[in-house]
Specification:
This protein is an alpha/beta fold and 548 residues long. Helix content is 51%, strand content 10%. It is elongated. The two termini are 48 Å apart.
Length: 548
């Protein structure tokens, strides 16, 4: 009767790397059983991390076989593989509790994750593992406020809650003092002994690895060999210098060596050519000066009766008794703010899922490219053209403005959002993929929270943008303050009233900018200990509260 623990990871004659002609590792044979801790050591850049990522199913082997958790495939059962990357893969703008709870996603059903309704057992287990790693008092703290050792314990607690069959840990002991490293080692030993996990851990210190690992392997010369005694690397960096041919003239060498000068010259030449092609001359600007003086004489001083006189031609009709509340300035600015708010909210709700589908690190190539083309098509038409289209479709009024600004917001904001999502750290995404989570969970619980600060800033910018463009879409009948500017411009040409409306709009935009600045200060990254994003209660799996 076979009493040996089950095999969790098995590599047979595997070639690891990215280039078939020059693999990082060749003929790799490795077997790890449940309850074992196996160490992996070697110099930097030799392929330790690539070997771990291959075991996690994130990189395909060049040849040979890789069996993970008793399946002859790099894709193991959902939740069977746990990964702690070198940079830990934590969602930096979220709390300790949120990050630890991510380990439970693999075992949660669709309804629990879609509605952010974890079971009571999941909440209790989350608190239990946080207490087990000694971070009970840090549950509601952002992980970016923790020390390096504390962050490593958060990553380990996430793996403990996941309870994978195979845990892959990449340099979790690096840059730690002896006492903190000892605590982390004890946690790994506890996970192997009490939870029957198989653990493959990368450690640059082979002597330390020998003290707690059942076996230690060393990567050397594209081979995986059993470590017996400490080896000193004789590899020395090769440094070379590239010299310019001395026969190149001094002037050309100066341009080549100074990229700013080179770029300035190229841009200057292109600018001259384009200006000449458009027949733009300084004399045309001089001729326009007299028209500017005439316009200024008719617009100054601004007529601020637009704040006090009642406008009986507002649309929709104003029903307030106060003349000021029904004045062109108040009604027009109110409509502009309302159009900007609705179009930003609707645009954000539509653009965010589209941005996740367009992000190349979250979606297959064909989906990503298809959605990008849709967003690009929405951006082709400026907001003014969208306003013209919807005025024809639904008629004159704010509805056309809301629809026009929403369409442009989706296209413009969607591009900013998918670029922000593509810029997030890859480690949290790899942790999620190693767990076997579907793409929508990777986006919702890892990518979007990680990019939340940038996404909130973009939404605020889009609101300011939509407020400013309220003066544009109104010129074609799509509501907002531009509608009232157009009333004074054609056919009356009351430039003093138009200038007053412009000044009022400027003041409102400045106030909005100051309010946005104060909001940004509460969540945008600071030089030290950046706070978490304020929308963590919108996206997270569930809010951990001390009394629950």
């Amino acid at each position: 009767m076979n009493t040996q623990p089950p095999v969790r990871l098995k590599l047979e004659d595997a070639a690891i790397g990215f280039d078939q002609e020059s693999p990082l590792l060749e003929s790799v044979d490795l077997e790890i059983r449940a309850g074992e801790i196996v160490g992996l050591t070697g110099r930097s850049g030799i392929g330790k991390t690539t070997l771990l990522r291959t075991a996690a199913g994130l990189v395909s082997p060049l040849s040979g076989s890789v069996e993970c958790c008793c399946t002859a495939d790099t894709r193991a059962q959902k939740g069977a593989i746990g990964l702690i990357p070198q940079r830990l893969g934590l969602v930096q703008h979220q709390t300790v509790g949120y990050n630890v709870l991510m380990g439970a996603l693999a075992g949660a059903n669709f309804l629990q994750t879609a509605l952010s309704l974890p079971s009571k057992k999941m909440r209790e287990e989350t608190r239990s593992v946080i207490e087990e790693v000694g971070l009970a008092d840090k549950t509601l703290d952002s992980v970016n406020r923790l020390s390096g050792g504390q962050q490593r314990r958060v990553a380990i607690a996430r793996a403990m809650l996941q309870e994978p069959d195979l845990l892959l840990a990449d340099e979790c002991l690096g840059e730690l003092d002896a006492e903190t490293a000892r605590g982390i080692i004890d946690l790994f030993r506890h996970m192997a002994d009490d939870h029957n996990m198989a653990i493959l851990i990368v450690d640059h210190n082979p002597v330390r690895a020998k003290t707690f690992c059942d076996r230690v392997y060393q990567l050397r010369g594209r081979r995986l060999i059993l470590f017996e005694e400490e080896e000193q690397s004789s590899a020395l960096p090769i440094i070379g210098e590239v010299f310019l041919n001395e026969r190149i003239s001094d002037s050309i060498r100066l341009i080549i060596r100074r990229p700013i000068l080179r770029t300035s010259i190229i841009l200057g030449i292109i600018t001259i050519l384009v200006t000449n092609h458009l027949q733009i001359t300084i004399w045309k600007l001089v001729d326009g000066w007299s028209n500017l003086l005439k316009l200024g004489s008719e617009a100054l001083p601004p007529d601020f009766t637009v704040l006090t006189e009642r406008a009986g031609w507002t649309y929709p009709p104003c029903t307030f008794e106060s003349d000021m509340l029904c004045s062109p300035a108040v009604v027009g600015m109110t409509q502009t703010l309302e159009i900007a708010f609705l179009s930003t909210v609707f645009g954000m709700l539509i653009s965010l899922p589209l941005a996740a589908m367009a992000a190349s690190n979250l979606s297959p190539y064909w989906i990503s490219q298809s959605v990008r083309q849709i967003l690009a098509a929405l951006r082709v038409l400026p907001s003014l053209i969208w306003a013209l289209i919807f005025v024809i479709v639904v008629g004159v009024g704010p509805l056309a403005g809301v629809l026009a600004m929403t369409m442009y917001t989706v296209g413009y904001l969607g591009k900013l959002q998918y670029e922000a999502l593509e810029g997030v750290s890859k480690e949290p995404l790899e942790v999620a993929r190693a767990m076997g989570l579907p793409r929508w969970q990777v986006a919702r619980f890892f990518a979007i929270p990680e990019a939340s600060n940038a996404l909130i800033s973009q939404a605020l910018f889009m609101f300011e943008y939509n407020v400013r463009h309220g003066s544009v879409i109104g010129l074609v009948g799509a509501g907002g303050i531009g509608w009232y500017m157009n009333h004074y411009l054609s056919p009356f040409q009351l430039y003093d009233k138009v200038l007053a409306l412009i000044i009022i709009m400027f003041v409102v935009v400045v106030l909005i900018d100051q309010i946005s600045l104060q909001i940004r200060k509460r969540f945008m990254d600071q030089e030290i200990n950046p706070p978490r994003a304020l929308w963590r209660n919108i996206v997270p799996f569930f809010p951990l509260r001390g009394g629950e």
